[in-house]
């Protein structure tokens, strides 16, 4: 049971860290708006915002679209 809780906590931290990296690149590095990025990635602004807030873990396909919009690699977004 404890292992399951630890795994859930790690996943939550990963979602949050991923979202923070996406937000930092979008806002601080590129100066882009959420709505524009979401449109370019073929998603709603709410979907993009939920990824940045760490509420949703994007699928690999969605993460690839986000990376393309931001001009980085998926590995960059994952912090690898």
Summarize the structure.
By secondary structure, the chain is mainly α. It has 5 helices and no strands.
Characteristic terms for this protein:
80 residues, mainly alpha, 434 Repressor (Amino-terminal Domain), 74% helix
Describe the structure in your own words.
By secondary structure, this protein is mostly helical. The chain has a single domain (2-78), classed as 434 Repressor (Amino-terminal Domain). The chain has helices at residues 2-29, 34-40, 45-52, 60-70, 74-78. The longest helix is centred in the N-terminal third of the chain and has 28 residues, at 2-29. The protein starts with a helix and ends with a helix.
Round the Cα radius of gyration to an integer and report it: 13 Å
CATH-assigned fold name: 434 Repressor (Amino-terminal Domain)
Q: Average the pLDDT over all residues and give the rounded result.
A: 89
CATH C-level label: Mainly Alpha
- Count of separate DSSP helical elements: 5
Strand content: under 5%
What is the overall silhouette? Answer: globular
What oligomeric state is this?
A: single chain
What are the low-pLDDT stretches, counting only 5+ consecutive residues below 50? none
CATH superfamily annotation: lambda repressor-like DNA-binding domains
How far is the first residue's CA from the last residue's CA?
29 Å
Percent helix range: over 70%
Strand-pairing-aware structural class: mainly alpha
Number of strands: 0
Please trace the helix and strand order, writing H or E for each element: HHHHH
How many domain modules?
Answer: 1
Q: Mind describing the biggest β-sheet?
A: none
The CATH architecture assignment turns out to be Orthogonal Bundle
């Amino acid at each position: 049971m404890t292992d399951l809780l630890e795994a859930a906590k790690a996943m939550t931290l990963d979602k949050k860290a991923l979202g923070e990296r996406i937000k930092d690149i979008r806002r601080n590095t590129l100066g882009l708006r959420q709505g524009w990025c979401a449109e370019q990635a073929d998603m709603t602004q709410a979907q993009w915002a939920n990824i940045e807030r760490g509420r949703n873990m994007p699928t690999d396909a969605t993460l690839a679209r986000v990376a393309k919009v931001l001009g980085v690699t998926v590995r960059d977004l994952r912090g690898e």
